User: Fold this.
Amino acid sequence: MGPAEFAPSTQLVSKTPTREQIQDQLDRILQSSLFIRSERMSRFLRFSVENTLASPGSAIKEYLVGVEVFDRPADYNPQVDPIVRVEARRLRAKLKSYYAAAGSTDPILIDFPKGAYSAVFRSTELARSSNAEERGQTAVAVLPFTNLCQGTGDEYFSDGLTEELILLLTRVRGLRVVAWYLPSFDNPAQDARRALAAIRFRSSTGQRFDSFALDIEAGFVKPVALRNQRLLRLSARLRAVAGSRYSLGAIVPSSVGMRRHPRYWPRFPYRPLARYYDVFLPMAYFTDAGVHGSKPSRAYLAANVRDIRIRTGNPNEPIHLIGGIAGSMGAKETAGFMHAVADCALLGYSLYEFPITSRSAWKALRAPLVAVANGGLCD
Assistant:
């Protein structure tokens, strides 16, 4: 998919927008159908734009967004609670959809670079110029489903349908598409309805998702025993509906991170979950843990694999390792990641995320795997 082409602007502005022009553009976006029903996205966008204007050139920290926008407590740790990164991805997608349709003639472009929470502002004239080389290409824009229900309770579902449709469009021969859902555990009936909708989904030609993964990380339900109970009930229901031959994955937080922050999710139910899921996908994210260098990166990632296999009681538990934020990894960290992949006999591996993976990282990812463990690293 190429970027959507901007239509000619009906209002000319200077290439460096003024504060007043930016504020007008923010108000215009927030009043659009895409944002007016999404209180959390609107709050995120307003916070980022206004803080960027107040402190030009200063980066907005992930911790600050978590506390100020998403009401996380003072001991909030982004390493174990990725709410800001998840919501930033949704915000970028909404803005892209807005400018592809309702905002196609707007004079100001508000955007967020990958991995940043500070906004950037450009005139759409400049944006059109920077995308000139892409104009001749055929592009497909998938616009978001609009939540027509009263209130914002189904906002996540409408956004999720858009993301899954985009995934369907990537279907080519030999490519398998995995659906996923992030339950809150605050509303079990809603979580079950949304997750099962993905598993039961069929296209007009009878196609379905090749597998489904449950993103297990929300900590909204504070009694951990209740959170675990709802997680296991949901997991049992998903397996019952999906059947034994349909692949299910459990996307789980970093076990090392949970050890460092024991109040986040004590007694995480690895062994019971293994009854329902075919593979664990730990969000190891060593890049968020301040880990640098080849050997420390490898050791941190291997520890996540080792923990899961010990706690499930299966030394051969299938694991797909999610290593870290691609844009924050240097050559040494990438090498450490690949050494862990080779050492730990993984089912699969990946980085977050595709658009910010550098050429050098791709080269390392494609290189032959060479195990270098000196015994016991992943056991």
